[in-house]
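Anyone else keep sequences and structure tokens together like this?

Example one:
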Amino acid sequence: MAAIRFVNATQEDVEAITDCIAAAYAKARETISDLPDVTAGVEQEIADHQVVLAWTEVGLGGVIIYSQSNDALKVINLAVAQQAQGQGIAGKLLKIAEDAARRNGCTHLILRTHRLMQDTRAIYAHLGWCETEVAGNSVAMSKYL
């Protein structure tokens, strides 16, 4: 497996992050008509939240955006570019968030995904996340530390 370098995002990374997120969600966009635009507002995400990038030999392979809310760490977005999938990047980015949660005294992590994103839900389940609510097309998941 090629080396993966993890760094905190800066405003200079906005275009690369936007492209990575768009590439990661491209396949889902073909079949899920009500998938929200998760590429908008990257500049503000970097300003307001923790954004960690996973750089590979071929470019930006993945990104995680998260922030603390009381005793929970909320994963706002996790995206792995299609060309980088299968390298364990999602798990490694989530581990970075988990480590941050522990350091900050959080008891659990939370996120929301789309009900029709079955592969995404399966990956989270494989990594120890549990579904806590399904409401419409939104699925809430959590992982206790």
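And example two:
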Amino acid sequence: MRPTIEAMAEGDIEVIARLRLEAFFEGTGRTLDEDMAGLRELVAGDGFEAAFVARDRGQPIGSCLLVRKEINSPHSLTPWLAGLIVEQAHRGGGVGSALVRTVEAQAVSAGVGTLYLYTWQARGFYEALGWSAVETFEQDGGPMLLMSRDL
């Protein structure tokens, strides 16, 4: 069965926040409650920012966001594809690509011309989807890559 991609709902928030904490925020001091609050703001947002979830048999297995501002960004660019996460057991099957394409489509419908993201380890994944490297820099003592995609 192919996962479905939908707007994130209240019932998805805790599961997705737990995935995000493990993937992005381990050792940072960010709490589950803080991440859940941030996701709730996106879910209840203004229609521009958006949170999407991938579901397999009704259960959330991944997520991706369209946001105006990226957390701790040294760049004054906007908007951002952020927080792409897929459960380990579901990787390699196109779920991440489908989530990225959903965020890109949302950005196009909102009139966005260029979308940005940060990555280091997933450079090849994003390049295969048409994203381009813009700048390599150091953040929090490690390498980081700014990428963009003209929509």
